[in-house]
UniProtKB/TrEMBL annotation:
Phylogenetic classification of the source organism: Eukaryota, Metazoa, Chordata, Craniata, Vertebrata
SMART domains: SPEC
Alphabetized InterPro entries for the sequence: Spectrin/alpha-actinin (IPR018159), Spectrin_repeat (IPR002017)
Superkingdom as given in the UniProt entry: Eukaryota
Organism: Jacana jacana
Keywords: Coiled coil
Coiled coil: 3-64, 208-242
Keyword Coiled coil assigned: yes
Gene: Utrn_1
Pfam families on file: Spectrin
Full protein name: UTRO protein
Length: 254
């Protein structure tokens, strides 16, 4: 009777493992939304816990069969053979579920990381757009134009590392067929805005550089003219003080 019960337990254990494999490993999952992916991660976590909890039952079966083998070698030997098959299948099931759980957790982590990088770069684009807008309707002063140019250039020096991460993470998920529609839409919108703002910012940078160069040249010309006028004023004052006749002055003074 003991042997019959153990044989029944082994059969039930094998049946449970077959059902677990069908439920958790053989279903084709399509992750088209973050909610579906998150639910799949949670389900695999529960599956892993469920499978590992059966380890106690497997150990009890193993101990009972060993004990029976010492008392009834013939019955124990047959059960030991069946036990080895169950143990191998159980270990395989554990490894496969652990592997799938780890993979899904990595995929979820990849998605969250992608969102974080997109948030960072979107904040930078907002900042860039604000700086570009600040270059419009500037006061016609050299210091104002120079400050606006330096402010814009400081934002444009933003490293490309985050955009590289966005491209690689997005492509990894899309290649796996995971959230591909959502990610493609997000990346398309981000890249379009990035290209538009980058080109606009660079155009404004070039325009400000040209404006600044023109203002500096004009300022230099005015400075030279001012210096010449001061010198001329000094000379005329000297002539008037000395009561010099106009026809005795240099032509430019006349």
């Amino acid at each position: 009777e003991k042997a019959v019960n153990l044989k029944k337990d082994l059969a039930e254990m094998q049946e449970w493992m077959t059902q677990a494999e069908e439920e958790y490993l053989e279903k084709d999952f399509e992750y088209k939304s973050p909610e579906e992916l998150e639910n799949a991660v949670e389900e695999m976590k529960r599956a892993k816990e469920d499978v590992l909890q059966k380890e106690v039952r497997v150990k009890i079966l193993k101990d009972n069969i060993k004990m029976l083998a010492t008392k009834v070698p013939s019955s124990g030997q047959d059960l030991a053979t069946e036990l080895n098959v169950v143990l191998e299948n159980y270990q395989l099931l554990c490894n496969r579920i652990r592997g799938k759980c780890h993979t899904l957790e990595e995929v979820w982590s990849c998605w969250i990381e992608l969102l974080q990088y997109l948030d960072l770069e979107t904040a930078w684009l907002n900042n860039l757009e604000e700086r570009v807008q600040m270059t419009e309707n500037l006061p016609d002063r050299l210091d104002a134009v120079n400050d606006a140019l330096e402010s814009l250039e400081s934002v444009l020096r933003h490293p490309a590392d985050n955009r590289t991460q966005i491209r690689e993470l997005g492509q990894t998920l899309i290649d796996g067929g995971i959230l591909d529609d959502i990610i493609s839409e997000k990346l398309e919108a981000f890249n379009a805005r990035y290209e538009e703002l980058s080109h606009l910012a660079v155009s404004r940078q070039i325009a400000l550089e040209q404006q600044l160069q023109t203002m500096r040249e004009t300022e230099h010309m005015l400075q030279v003219l001012q210096e010449n006028l001061v010198e001329l004023d000094r000379q005329l004052t000297s002539y008037l003080t000395d009561r010099v006749d106009a026809f005795q002055m240099p032509q430019e003074a006349q």
